[in-house]
Design a protein that fits this description.
The protein is an all-alpha fold. The chain has one domain: Orthogonal Bundle (434 Repressor (Amino-terminal Domain)), CATH 1.10.260.40. It contains 5 helices and no strands. Helix 2 (15-22) packs across helix 3 (26-33). The longest helix is centred in the last third of the chain and has 10 residues, at 41-50. The chain is globular and about 25 Å long.
Length: 61
Amino acid sequence: MNNIKKFRVEKNITQKELADKIGITQQMMSNYENGYSTPSIKLAQKIADIFESSIDTIFLK
């Protein structure tokens, strides 16, 4: 699992808003958030940047 949902809820951002910010669909964001898919390094960095955090903090336990 990852911490995308935790960070997203803390920032009060919907899946759709986060998906739009990084240029993917809401369904793909849901897949990332629920651990069904893993984003590329490029997308993982975009997510980390939005949350002002590191890839490690968001994607590693």
